[in-house]
Amino acid sequence: MPIWLRLAIGGGATLLVGMGIGRFSYTPLIPALILDGALSAAEAGYVGAFNLGGYLVGALAVPALRRRYRALPVLKVALLISLLCLVASIFPFGFLWLVWWRTLVGITVAVLMIYSLALVTTSVPSDRLGKATGVVFTGVGVAILLSGTLVPGLLEFGLQAAWAGLAVVGAIGVALGWWGLAVARDAPVTAQESVPKFDGASSRLVAAQGLFAVGLVPHSIYWVDYVARGLDLGMGQGGFQWVLVGVGAVGGTYLWGWLADRIGFAAALVLVFTVLAVGIAIPVIFPTGIVLVISSLIFGAQPGLSAVISGRARQVVGARDMPHVWRRMVLSVGISQTIGGYLLVALFNTTGSYLQVFLIGGAAMALGAVLSLPVWSRRRVA
């Protein structure tokens, strides 16, 4: 197995544990948590929002970590903490207990995102960049697929059984992550790093990444709840749609990376944003069966945008500055999804309307497509 592929698999496993299980596995649990009486509808939404807020804290903590510790030990510790959070969530100790552990795993998600993507994108050959980042973000899709298939069945045995099943998947991901990352070349710790200045091209990518994060909030928190309770289709149909999200994530994520290698990262980025804008907004306008399926598949493939935008960032700023710019992009995600998450949850709790929440998400993606247009920059990039 090529070293770059093993490293990409290791990076994918870290995102499986963090972004996949640590974040997206909560979505199919929300209706069950509400119907079981473990959380109110408002509390369930705010638990999701605190998870998004933790992401911001993690992104802010990374510079201090980079100055003190090598990347691999930080990645391994973050994986173990993520697993601890999953195990702790099994215990039914109420709203504040779940808020704490979901916030903590949100912190580790940011750490895992920044470090794993920086390692992969700076280590792989340029002609394998799209495939490598596609493999990394496919880890998120695998986790979504597993949570969509496991959670509905395990819920028949209770909420604790569902949480326990997710923890088992997380443990497997930790082991796979340690194996894959073992071949990484760990850079030495540096007390002071040369941080690149913002320019127009990288600033637009940072802003677009923030809009992407806002656009994800409706599906990330409310998609299964919208299908199960909003459309009154029940948990079975809600779970089925989340399985389709996983299918889209596994297949679509790699497909976007493959496409970027062929049509260019700039064109692929605009295309992904545009498709996501339609896929997020359309199910509340035309909530038919086929539209729900299409929306699930499109949203599932959303990790592909992160794969494409990370490759585009490397093209724009180069491999040396990629870790710094990627951190800015993750920080943009943290700020945007924290503010957007709390505001959209508050909007839903005030209005009880899914329509406004999902339309705002679609509009954010559409604006991201506009900012990603290569016509904004006269700079010629590889």
List keywords for this structure.
382 residues; 81% helix; single chain; Growth Hormone, Chain: A; 14 helices; mainly alpha
Nutshell version of this structure?
81% of the residues lie in helices and 0% in strands. It is mainly alpha-helical and 382 residues long. The chain has a single domain, classed as Growth Hormone, Chain: A, CATH 1.20.1250.
Secondary-structure blueprint:
Elements: H1 3-23, H2 30-35, H3 41-68, H4 71-88, H5 95-123, H6 129-155, H7 159-181, H8 200-230, H9 234-263, H10 265-285, H11 289-300, H12 303-317, H13 322-351, H14 354-372
Helix pairs in contact: 1-4, 1-5, 1-6, 1-7, 3-5, 3-13, 4-5, 4-7, 5-13, 6-7, 6-9, 6-12, 8-9, 8-10, 8-12, 8-13, 8-14, 9-10, 9-11, 9-12, 10-11, 10-12, 10-14
Kindly describe this structure:
- The structure is a single chain.
- This protein has 14 helices and no strands.
- The protein has helices spanning 3-23, 30-35, 41-68, 71-88, 95-123, 129-155, 159-181, 200-230, 234-263, 265-285, 289-300, 303-317, 322-351, 354-372.
- The two termini are 28 Å apart.
User: Radius of gyration, rounded?
Assistant: 19 Å
Query: What structural category arises from helix and sheet content?
Result: mainly alpha
Query: Uncertain spans, ≥5 residues at pLDDT below 50?
Result: 378-382
The total number of structural domains is 1
Would you report the number of β strands?
0
